Amino acid sequence: MSLLIAVLLPVVILLLAQYRSLAGLEGKTRAAVQENLRQTLQSFACLVVKKAEALAAETLGGIDPADVEGERLDRIADRLSAIRQSHSETNLAFVVIHCLCRKKNFAIFATPEGVRRIDRSFQAKPRSTGCD
Known about the structure:
Layout: H1 2-60, H2 65-69, H3 73-86, E1 93-97, E2 104-111, E3 114-121
Antiparallel strand pairs: 1-2, 2-3
């Protein structure tokens, strides 16, 4: 009997130590997998943002700044429509010019329903300095 206890006691102690070690390893592995997944998703999100910015620069880069400055709204509207047609994933393409330094501001939206224009002419109001 004492021989059986002498053999079983170290085996039981070894099994308990192995169990605790495996339980701790499981927690560390779970944390490592979660951190790896977080880093992978963060890298993927950064890649998606870069690709979206590149696509926007590529497509909107075709709008001539002279057309915007010259307020050639028909040419801008045609370009926005072409962008929407060439990129089916694009639901809305738009140009908005809103600046107090301009007498005329405008926005052009190319949507699945068509092109919509908004023109606003206004006089810039003098700003109060707050010292009155």
